[in-house]
Amino acid sequence: MAVLLAVSPLAIAEESEAETPKEEQELKRNQSETPEAVKAHLAYVEELDRRYPDSSKVDPERFMAEEGEKAALIYCRALGFEGPCEPDKGQSASARAGFVALDVDRAAAKVGRFGWFDWLFNLFYSVGVIPDKASCPSPHVLVQMHMDDEDRRNANSRWGWIGATVSNNNTTWRFCRLNWDASFAFKPLANWGNQYDYAVQNLGVFCPPGSRRVLRRHDNEDWANANWSSGGVYPSVNLIGNWWTYTCQFDGGTPTPLMSSFPTLGFGYGVFSPTNLPWPYALANGYVYQDDEDFLNLNFWALSWPDNVMGGSNNTWRGLSRVK
């Protein structure tokens, strides 16, 4: 029933395309193509997954020494910076996706194992889980991704447990970014099959071993777009009113090692999952349905398929389960 409810608004939402004002149609038709810097970042992430199909084989220190600066610069340029950038430690008005520009002198003066791009090492395998409440205990960090959904005849919907996610006419996803140790605790569930798949938000260079990366390109509202983020969303990108977001998907029953229960993190949280992920894995189920931009919608999935965890074409549906 949850899937039917999630899909049913589609017909209503898509009828509003013909109602799109001429000025917005013109804006969309004249919208710049995906910037080359963003394409370079997307291609680089895809290349990393091809080179390292098993992320447990990556030597983080060697990777950082050999191409850490390259990886960081590619991302900074995708955000629109000409050179180095770093996570925003405050609420700077000039921040982009939680990052701010770093001039050459400050970059050269940065101390740490890898200098100005040491932040990349700290995020190497990080993932995000959906907190039950809008806060994350130390050392975990609250990350937010706001999506400005379709304005006309908005058909957003939600059901059941969605944690600290805000779902109204727009959607704000909230995650607790975990450190390496906590991120590595996630493994495929012991039961086999799509019903036992789940996903966490990808907030690091690589997904943890045993998972695969999924990319969703969200075509958000074109007119006066109000997308925003905080906390640092690497490797996701928000530009020109569109989100490119990554998740790490664990497929039920493969590959080993497996886990029989979700890790205890010291706070209530959930993950993306099919709405029929059963107890005792799921303590509660739910979904969030987003009515994405209707006019000339350019949504797509890439890298791999999300199976029953999430779906949609011109709109986006994500299943959720509280697991702790």
Label this structure with key terms.
single chain, 324 residues, 15-stranded antiparallel sheet, globular, disordered N terminus
Report the β-strand fraction as a percent range.
25-35%
Instruction: Tell how many strands the DSSP assignment holds.
Output: 17
Number of domains: 1
The average pLDDT is 89
The topology string of helices and strands comes to: HHHHHEEHHEEEEEHEEEEEEEEEE
What Rg is obtained from the alpha carbons, in whole angstroms?
A: 19 Å
Report the principal-axis shape. Answer: globular
Question: Stretches where pLDDT falls below 50 for ≥5 residues?
Answer: 1-13
Distance between the termini: 24 Å
How would you sum up the major sheet?
15 strands, antiparallel
How would you describe this protein?
With 324 residues, the chain is of the alpha+beta class. It has one domain. The protein is built from 8 helices and 17 strands. The strands form 2 sheets. It has a 15-stranded antiparallel sheet that branches. The protein has a two-stranded antiparallel ribbon with strand order 1-2. Strand 11 (237-239) and strand 12 (242-250) form a beta hairpin. Helix 4 (36-51) runs antiparallel to helix 5. The longest helix has 19 residues, at 60-78. Residues 19-36 have a biased composition (Basic and acidic residues). Residues 14-36 are annotated as: Disordered.
In a nutshell, what does this entry contain?
By secondary structure, this protein is α+β, with helices and mostly antiparallel strands. The chain has helices at residues 2-7, 9-14, 22-29, 36-51, 60-78, 104-109, 118-122, 180-184; strands spanning 85-87, 99-101, 127-131, 141-147, 157-160, 166-167, 171-177, 198-202, 212-219, 228-230, 237-239, 242-250, 269-272, 284-290, 300-302, 310-311, 316-322. The chain has a 15-stranded antiparallel β-sheet that branches. A two-stranded antiparallel ribbon has the order 1-2.
